Amino acid sequence: MRDVYENPLCKRYAGKEMQQIFSDDRKFSTWRKLWIALAESEQELGLDISDAQIDEMKAHIHDIDYEMAAKREAEVRHDVMAHIYTYGQVCPAAKPIIHLGATSCFVGDNTDLIIMKDALQLVRKKLLTVIEGVADFAEKYKDLETLAYTHFQAAQPTTVGKRATLWLQDLMMDLENLDHVASNLKLRGCRGTTGTGASFLELFNGDEEKVFALEKKVTEKMGFTENYDVTGQTYSRKVDYFVLSMLSGIAQSATKFSSDMRLMSHKKEFDEPFEAGQVGSSAMAYKRNPMRSERIASLSRLVIAEAMNPAITAATQWLERTLDDSANKRISIPEAFLAIDGVLNLYNNIIRGMKVYPKQIEKHLMEELPFMATENIMMECVKRGGDRQQLHEAIRNHAVAAGLAVKEEGADCDLIDRIAADPVFGLTKEEILAIIKGSRFSGLASVQTERYVKKVRAVLEKEKDFMATATTEAIRV
Predict the structure, then answer these.
(1) In the chain, fewer beta carbons within 10 Å around the N or the C end?
(2) Are 222 and 143 spatial neighbours (Cβ–Cβ below 8 Å)?
């Protein structure tokens, strides 16, 4: 269809697997699975529900008549009642017991939690894949010295691998946060209209233990170990905030990486993957824009902004429930997951395919390193009998002159040549270069990288079976 709006997250950015998780088929088939779990549990606890009724329901989990449901919803103005009716049309024997004792949030809220649980597992797989890619990159370039920056002004050297560990550590924090959020995700359970379980208490003739047992059975049948201790009609909308806040954290980490990539691309030290026929600009044929990194930043901004929606929703819920969550919730949660899916696909593509230019990195380093090495040069001259004060003044004069020549005349930095030509130092250019090369300007960068990557590898080793199931779908990037 070209005459109506289609969400770009589905058309351009998110992978098929994440789209399937938030599809109508997944949503409404899960509603039917919940109704089956409820009926089975009620039967097991003594209600008059037959095996034939349950078998009939199981036979029609996926053959959903969306046209009938839409027509019925237009009449009754209630989506759950429309789908109960539609399900009942293909399950005439089970029709009297579908949704028995439940309220709309039994299927609505529980399904949202089930879908978020599945979506979190897909995010986790992709996050681990990205972590592995960054760890590989860090290890590969752990010894490649590069100019480090503070305030995007030249500072002391580091290594390319050490810089990558900054990205890596952010992602590991995100993994820890994801695991915390996922492990605390619970099912809403069977609570009735205001969370008191009154309808189920009536069904079981006042037997409290059967009501609690019903909830336990349904919870386990739907793949959860726990349900929330108390609810109103809905589970607390703070749960949605915790989930999207965690996704926002991943988006923040990805944005930091993408910003670094854009800065280094500007300096021609790195290129993100660029296909042979790829066009960088419609006007400037020579351009190679970091469009994938820019897309990460763009999609991540959406995820970060989306985290505000459940925060405001949670803060404004009235008493046992209000419906101003529904329209917002059905947009903000899927969009946040779809966008972060696209972000992780892009991140993985870039980190595993980007090109590094060591000569350009060395050039930029050597433009600044002579200035940083002046103290080491001065100390070597003092060891050879030189006067520190005289040497300090000479270095100051040469450094100022060399710096001005670079800024005012566009000249290359010739500080080493200036020092080598000054007899007060008594050093050849080769000796000066040897002093610079022998100095550990990047400190423990290489060692720190090795040590941290080793820790990350230990985590990845524990996750190798889980990662083996990770999607290999082709993604447009």
Answers:
(1) N
(2) no
Using N-to-C axis directions, what is the helix angle for 104-140 and 79-90, rounded to 10°?
100
pLDDT (0 to 100) of residue 287:
57
**What's the DSSP call for residue 102?**
-
What is the pLDDT, as a whole number, of residue 471? 59
474 residue type, one letter? A
Neighbours of 201 (CB within 10 A): 16
| C-alpha span between 111 and 474 (Å, rounded) | 28
16-22 contacts, C-beta under 8 A, 24 or more apart: 16/473, 17/122, 17/471, 17/473, 18/119, 18/122, 18/337, 18/338, 18/341, 19/338, 21/115, 21/118, 21/119, 21/122, 21/337, 22/115, 22/119, 22/334, 22/337, 22/338
CB atoms within 10 A of CB 128: 21
Q: What confidence tens digit (pLDDT) does each residue in 417-456 have?
A: 999 998 988 889 998 888 877 677 888 999 999 999 999 9
Label residue 171 exposed, middle or buried (CB < 10 Å: 0-12, 13-18, 19+).
buried
Residue range 29-83, pLDDT digits in tens: 999 999 999 999 999 999 999 999 999 999 999 999 999 999 999 999 999 999 9
* Gap between the Cα atoms of 263 and 272, Å rounded: 12
Joined together, the tokens standing for residue 34 give: 């919940």
Unique residue bearing structure tokens 């820890």: 176
Low-confidence ranges of the chain (pLDDT < 70): 1, 275-287, 438, 470-477
pLDDT value of position 220: 96
Burial of residue 240 (CB within 10 Å: 0-12, 13-18, 19+) is buried
**Rounded alpha-carbon distances, angstroms, from residue 143 to 21, 130, 360, 372, 449:** 42, 21, 16, 19, 9
- Does residue 98 contact residue 39 with C-beta atoms inside 8 Å? yes
pLDDT at 473: 59
User: Are 187 and 113 a contacting pair, CB within 8 Å?
Assistant: yes
Alpha helices (H) in 63-103, listed in sequence order: 66-76, 79-90
Rg (CA), the chain: 31
Residue 253 zone, left/alpha/beta (φ > 0; ψ -120 to 50; rest): alpha
Between vectors from CA 39 to CA 33 and to CA 42, what angle results, nearest 5°? 140
| Catalytic residue list | 151, 281
Which pLDDT score, from 0 to 100, does residue 476 have? 57
